[in-house]
Amino acid sequence: MRKVLLATGLGAMAAVAAGSAGANDGLNRMSQNPAGWVMPTGDYANTRYSKLKQINASNVGKLQVAWTFSTGVLRGHEGGPLIVDNMMYVHTPFPNKVYALDLSNENKIVWSYEPKQDPNVIPVMCCDTVNRGVAYGDGKIFLHQADDKLVALNAKNGNVEWSIANGDPTKGQTGTSAPMVVKDKVLVGTSGGEFGVQCSMTAYNIKDGKQVWKAYSEGPDDQILFDDKTTALGKPVGKDSSLKTWEGDQWKIGGGCTWGWLAYDPTLDLVYYGSGNPSTWNPKQRPGDNKWSMTIFARNPDNGAAKWVYQMTPHDEWDYDGVNEMILTDQSIDGKARKLLTHFDRNGLGYTLDRANGELLVAQKYDPKVNWTSGVDMNKSSPTYGRPKVLDEYSTDKQGEDHNNKGICPAALGSKDEQPAAYSPDTQLFYVPTNHVCMDYEPFKVSYTAGQPYVGATLSMYPPPGETHMGNFIAWDGRTGKIVWSNKEQFSVWSGALATAGGVVFYGTLEGYLKAVDAKSGKELYKFKTPSGIIGNVTTYEHNGRQYVAVLSGVGGWAGIGLAAGLTDPTAGLGAVGGYAALSNYTALGGTLTVFTLPQQ
Fold first, then answer.
1. Residue 440 is among the residues annotated as catalytic for this protein
2. Which PROSITE patterns does this one have (predicted)?
3. 585 exposed, middle or buried (CB, 10 Å; 0-12, 13-18, 19+)?
């Protein structure tokens, strides 16, 4: 690795690192201070909401660029910076550089870290060389590298405190996700569903990196950490609930990867996350429900034991990964106070569940063009309760191998991918960046070889019939499952949203615009064209009494893979290259952090 040390001076940060349990308590307190942004999604509940309101609906139109920072790296810049005390931590896609910038000293580079990684990991990464951000805790910065190593860096000077191999990239296991610090542990998932990996979530000791537990998405109970108390929709899942849904030993190459966001409820002491697609993309080759791919997990962070699970898309036929964020809110439904979990799945359905017991409360389409299902069976006495009803016309399994299934909505990248939504307690609405895209999907037989692609489908993507736009930014009522307002965007909205107490919601576009809209009406209040397309997540913080808004631009990700990797075959990039070919008319590669503020009075 290469590390450059230029200066020090983290001030009060040292007080936070006074022991692992104390560090976590401190982290939780720090996340309540809107001046900083100490977790990848802002807080444990994944709300991406800030109490800052210096920038508000009446003055956001006056925003101007305060400063910029070039990351020196191309490809897709997902995630966003952390702000801890007076320090900002900025990350990049492969080679996964990390910069520590001193906000009190002209944003000077205090230290930088660049790991040495085998470039052969690049072709093993499914959908661009992205990284979704670093985490902070116990005086350390945690980086999940592309080669699936989890590295703990000293937050003061960038020195490597410990490093652990979370998986083997030669077998298709890679790292793109942001870790999460919970109590005395750091949790991290893995990518590799397109390579037949048996995926997992793993907890490591925050002090020394020793593995505490590992929970696989599919397999025998002792590997998935299920017991006789684990429930699904209120009923015990029973023994070998996963094994019974796979043919033979297919679960060993079953996918179900865990590269999305994590949430944590300190009161219930439960961690929540989702699993991805089963391997292969050809459903004919893996009969059964393929549990527990496409599933929401609620686990005990101390030992990984699963309290409850809910599988959203049994026997997935379209690559509708379930890894998108779980947003935790306390709201009333039908006059009853509930601890809720809201999830916008790739399959186009917005789910609201009781996060204490996994009861399904709402399941509705958040894009009106979703057509593969007529809806979810909400009758609790029905044998198919909680399952979506699949329409034969769009069933890639029913139509069989080597049949091109046309007009399926949404496309494989879903009505929303990993780009996280935001929630405002002021409006009690969710603000959701979406994809408005359909596809043709042709499955074919594929054989498994370790470390080689295990996809088995050819795709093409395009806007819904009769329409030209490929994205919407929507406000959603999770209690009723209804769209409150919707703004059209030419391309998918692949940026994470930010809601603020100022009544403003921010997001970025693939062309490169940072946009601010009114939280109640959706009216556009401001936009600014950044140097490259935005697939990063908008962040806000306060420094020296002024509120700032920050976003990484750098086009790429699945939607921008054609630009990022120089691909031209329309079916390349798992079908995205053709669908987003026009993007090159509006933006180009780059990696820049742009920071905005209001003019000084």
1. no
2. BACTERIAL_PQQ_2 (PS00364)
3. exposed
